[in-house]
Amino acid sequence: MTDLEICVDGLVSDRIRDMNAMVEATRQELEKRYHADTEDLTMRTLKAAQINEDEYFGRILYDELAAILKQIKAAHGNDKTTSDGAAIEQARKQLEDAQKFEGSPLEKKMNVLMGQIGIFNINEPLQYGAVVGNPFMLIPTVLIAIILPGFSYLWFAMGWGTINHVNFDMNFAPNAVSAFFMSGGDFRNVILVCINFVIAALIWYPFFKAADAAECKKEAEREAAKAAKKAAKLSANA
Q1: Does the reported pTM lie above 0.90?
Q2: Largest CB tally within 10 Å, which of 20, 65, 131, 188?
Q3: Which residues are CB-contacts of 117 (< 8 A; sequence separation ≥ 6)?
């Protein structure tokens, strides 16, 4: 921590200010006597040569503290409260699994992205990345908006569940969890959510496969165009 002591003592700070004053005086003298352009290379060099004291000590102290923190982190690597890096390893495994997944590049990306966050109702990346503007997804979007509410209405009309009446602000919780608490603990509402999930999956699946097939076709056409362009370029250079 010698550098920290030097910074506190201020001796180096005095030398930095003296040097900056000398360089600045030289720059101003050139500008005054020779009417040098401030954008001239020499003038800009004299300006850039002046040391920012905060940046200078910040860089030195950061390097020293970073080395100390790395040693502390390594020493506490096996503590229960220390991250074991499992999240990074899990993310890496998801990326590897996505590459093995059969489907279009867009489907692979969505598979990785939504694998963790979809269950917590964070669906905007999927909705705006693959559904909005996709003609294949228009029909299932409309069907689900009609069928699921209609089925839920019949479910409650038959007395098979409790209409939600409890305020539950944890909107990021899985739908089944929200349904349980918002109904005052009626497990039949959880069953309704699960059935709706199955119905939605059955509606989505054929349209999803059609959209993915179309995306795969587009990708194949793009790759073929790239290959043809590359072959034409090699032929021209031969």
Answers
A1: no
A2: 131
A3: 125
